[in-house]
Prior knowledge:
This protein has 143 residues and is mostly beta strands. It has no helices and 14 strands. The chain has strands spanning 2-5, 11-14, 24-26, 33-38, 44-49, 53-58, 64-69, 75-80, 86-91, 96-100, 105-110, 117-122, 128-133, 138-142. The strands form four sheets. The chain has a four-stranded antiparallel beta sheet, with no helix packed on it. Strands 8-9-10-11 form a four-stranded antiparallel beta sheet, with no helix packed on it. Strand 1 and strand 2 (11-14) form a beta hairpin. The chain is globular and about 45 Å long.
Amino acid sequence: MLVSGSDDFTMFLWKPNESKKPIAQMTGHQQLINEVLFSPDGRIIASASFDKSVKLWNGKTGKFIAALRGHVQAVYQIAWSADSRLLCSGSADSTLKVWDIGQRKLLVDLPGHADEVFSVDWSPDGERVASGGRDRVLKLWRR
């Protein structure tokens, strides 16, 4: 499976080994899409957008599951925890947010950067998140 996101606010789900046509068109974002990622277990696709939201989609069908709202500016990047239970998002609003995917709600709000957060990633053991931003600071956050 392959998922693509675009600046025309749409995403497509593909099975490139089987067809050159997408199996699903995924719509719902109101502004351009910055990043799309399958969860490590492949069950969920997360998308981050300039519309200030993170959206969740079924990884097999492309059907919309939920919108995660809480950022007040564009969401630039997302990162899944290795167990697919948590998602971290970094935003132009200078915060990171950790989302509980099972509950589909905000678990932790992580303010602390002085400017936009451009990059987020989980440590392999899932105990820490690293973030970097326009403030030229690298932060490590403990779970």
